[in-house]
Design brief:
By secondary structure, the protein is mainly β. It has a single domain, classed as Metal Binding Protein, Guanine Nucleotide Exchange Factor, Chain A, CATH 2.170.150.70. It is built from 2 helices and 11 strands; from the N terminus they run βββαββββββββα. It has helices spanning about 35, 130-135; strands spanning about 5-10, 15-25, 25-30, 40-45, 50-55, 60, 70-75, 80-85, 90-95, 105-110, 125. The strands form 2 sheets. Strands 6-7-8-9-4-3-10-11 form an 8-stranded mixed beta sheet. The protein has a 3-stranded antiparallel beta sheet with strand order 1-2-5, with no helix packed on it. A hairpin with a 6-residue loop joins strand 1 (about 5-10) and strand 2 (about 15-25). The termini are far apart.
Length: about 140
């Protein structure tokens, strides 16, 4: 069983603070077009659904798909989270919690969408776009 971590941090301007007590040390990499446009590839940590946030009046949430939303600080633009609507599960950029040292790159999502101009040497699980949608997209 994976030992969960806890940490707290803040956005660049300090207006938004997030405390998470159920952080998986397994880094998820996403190569989808949205994550790459958002500054990716995204390197994120699954933080569960129980977070404490301060400064909610500084959080802008963008409804990025039928099944997920993204949020950023409306003052400094720091990427805060990606949230799966159905489960309420948050993924937070791995760099948001700079004090975490026990992290390991675990899986690369949308591997079939990864451009050829970069690659990681880590051995990870790899999921295609179809496999990700099969796992997370709402079923009709």
């Amino acid at each position: 069983m994976t030992k969960l971590l806890s940490s707290e941090s803040q956005c660049l301007c300090g207006n938004v603070k997030i405390r998470a007590s159920s952080i998986s040390p397994k880094v998820i990499v996403c190569h989808c077009g949205m994550c790459r446009k958002w500054g990716g590839p995204a390197l994120a940590l699954d933080c569960g659904s129980d977070l404490e946030m301060e400064g909610s009046d500084n959080i802008t949430v963008y409804d990025s798909s039928e099944w997920a939303e993204r949020a950023f600080c409306s003052n400094c633009g720091t990427h805060l989270f990606y949230r799966i609507k159905e489960t309420g599960g948050y993924s937070i950029p791995a760099g948001f919690f700079p004090d975490l040292e026990e992290l390991e790159m675990d899986v690369q999502c949308f591997i079939d969408k990864k451009p050829s101009y970069y690659s990681f040497s880590n051995r990870t699980k790899e999921l295609t776009e179809k496999e990700v949608f099969d796992l997370y997209a709402p079923k009709e």
